[in-house]
């Protein structure tokens, strides 16, 4: 299967002209399988929908990322509130407890990717829900409302992450459909051109107009680029 190395708009513009030419000349159509021109026209009509679908899917993925960012900001807020309260609840020599259970003091060693942040959130949340810790935190102003809010926002992430991955998968599928249809259309267009080239060979100058209608001298664009002129040799400087 041929793959495009030029814009899809170039394919659809030239493809429309080539299909119209194929429909105009029955001798070319006769060289092709039955309904070939009709199938090609259907592919031409489908390509704009594929492109629109790809853009919509990418937009949906972007929106989900923004929603996840809002949830992450809320999650980080409750993580920081829990840490601040824990510092008050467990002062003095309880550095190990604060470090291990409330993830305080890791500094620059902490990873900040989403998975690592969620891992720290899970540790902090589990520590908050420990009966002894919760009792101490409540003495410093923490309430069940904070625990519930923290738990709720943390609970959004499995769904948000899964939905984001689903959105990215849909966007990838939309791209794949577009690329597959474009490659299929390209193959059809080249086949029609080949039939036209056989019917109206270049060796007969009288075929020039028909060949132009089938874009045989201009499409695909890279097939008709003249080779670059050779670089002239540099003059040899005279011997001193």
What does this structure look like?
- The model is unreliable at 49-64, 159-167 and 224-228 (pLDDT under 50).
- α1 runs parallel beside α7 (144-199) and α5 (114-128) packs antiparallel against α7 (144-199).
- The protein contains eight helices and no strands.
- The chain has helices at 8-24, 26-30, 36-89, 95-102, 114-128, 131-138, 144-199, 208-213.
- The protein is mostly helical and 240 residues long.
- Number of structurally distinct domains: 1
Q: Could you tell me how far the N terminus lies from the C terminus, measured between alpha carbons in angstroms?
A: 60 Å
- The level of helicity is over 70%
Query: What fraction of the residues are assigned to beta strands by DSSP?
Result: under 5%
The secondary structure category is: mainly alpha
Strand and helix map with partners:
Blueprint (H helix, E strand, L loop, with lengths): L7 H17 L1 H5 L5 H54 L5 H8 L11 H15 L2 H8 L5 H56 L8 H6 L27
List keywords for this structure.
240 residues, mainly alpha, 8 helices, 0% strand
TL;DR of this structure?
By secondary structure, the chain is mainly alpha-helical. The protein has helices at residues 8-24, 26-30, 36-89, 95-102, 114-128, 131-138, 144-199, 208-213.
